[in-house]
Amino acid sequence: MRIFQKMEGDVNCVVWDASLVLAKYLETMCQTKPEFLSGLRVLELGSGLGVVGLTAATLGAQVTLTDLPEALPLLRLNLSENKSKIASMGGYAIAESLVWGDKNSEIHKQEFDMIVLADCVYYEDALLPLIETLQCLNHTLKQKPTIYLTQELRDSEIQKKLWNDFYEKLNEYFYIEKIPEEQQHVNYRSPDILLLKIIKK
């Protein structure tokens, strides 16, 4: 897979370690269960460069990658670079704009089997909109999608508090299961990166 990055820019311009952990976990699961992603409708939140969503698409999933409007040009470039590989594996990918907290988004009217997001808890003002978006996506669905989330646990007190606040709020509405390191890819796991499986209560 080919991924373009920017040397300067915001959080959506580089590949984060947490996205590699989640992408490799999806690969590992597909090696164990080939049908794990095949044909599934997958939504990626905060796609950034698209590593997780594009990986899912190369594993046979039908993926909608989403991010802020300003992130779409680079995201769509990466999608275009990997289009032939995705098609050869029976997958599909499209990139769309989604602003967290926007309850009128057309994305909320679609059905998804799985939601993935990597290292999305970073800015305080995005915390509640992200929770709202996860709730909205679950309210409109007949079957609750499985959510896979990775997050790097950072050392700064601000980031620690932000993650704790997010986790506490998430725990009010969702069942949360921590996936142990031994179930993750041997070369793509870290005690500093949480991998969670989440389902709406």
Automatic annotation (TrEMBL):
InterPro entries: Methyltransf_16, SAM-dependent_MTases_sf. One of its GO terms (cellular component) is protein-containing complex. It holds the Pfam family Methyltransf_16. It comes from Danaus chrysippus (African queen). This is (African queen) hypothetical protein.
